[in-house]
Design brief:
The complex is a heterodimer of chains A (about 120) and B (about 110).
Chain A (H helix, E strand, L loop, with lengths): L3 E4 L2 E4 L5 E7 L5 E7 L5 E7 L6 E2 L6 E5 L5 E5 L8 E8 L10 E2 L3 E5 L1
Parallel strand pairs in A: 2-11
Antiparallel strand pairs in A: 1-3, 3-8, 4-5, 4-9, 5-6, 7-8, 9-10, 9-11
Chain B lengths: L4 E3 L2 E5 L4 E6 L7 E6 L6 E6 L5 E4 L2 E5 L5 E6 L8 E8 L5 E3 L3 E6 L1
Parallel strand pairs in B: 2-11
Antiparallel strand pairs in B: 1-3, 3-8, 4-5, 4-9, 6-7, 7-8, 9-10, 9-11
Classes of the chains: A mainly beta (about 120), B mainly beta (about 110).
Amino acid sequence: NAGVTQTPKFQVLKTGQSMTLQCAQDMNHNSMYWYRQDPGMGLRLIYYSASEGTTDKGEVPNGYNVSRLNKREFSLRLESAAPSQTSVYFCASSEAAARAGYEQYFGPGTRLTVT
Amino acid sequence: TQLLEQSPQFLSIQEGENLTVYCNSSSVFSSLQWYRQEPGEGPVLLVTVVTGGEVKKLKRLTFQFGDARKDSSLHITAAQPGDTGLYLCAGAGSNYQLIWGAGTKLIIKP
């Protein structure tokens, strides 16, 4: 039982390049999330997927796209990377809605630098 | 827009001292969670509080949810170096989203 896995762990991109961050969970969770974490700003939600087949924008969706490939996998794509997207990206999953108090389980993160 | 203000942002104390971290908002939350994050890892849940006035204890850590469910505190008694980390509070906002505080970076010096 690996929990939430993310690939890659580190990535350096040049401005304008594209890439996809992969995330998978093996806990049979319904909901999945993508966050970015910047110093002094806590976690900011980029996109989430309440259930398989649905995706919704979070607080900071501009410059990103997501795909809920199946119940296990939720990918985040940067189409044209910008230096402002330099950050640590976390994928998380939960059994159901945050409003019901469900815990979110996090992956180890992807450290992305855009030069 | 719901916001959670966490204080202090940074705290460095000696082993054995006590400390309190605060999480405040003008909004009401249905529940509030506290997470701890170590360098290079994702956050891990410590506790969820749901009822106004609720107090939960986890060994030397005491968590309290305000009566009006707008604020919460984390108190650590006799802090140890193993308590070092980033502590994050998160309130249940809309159905699927958590509202996160900016975090308190805690360093316990031996």
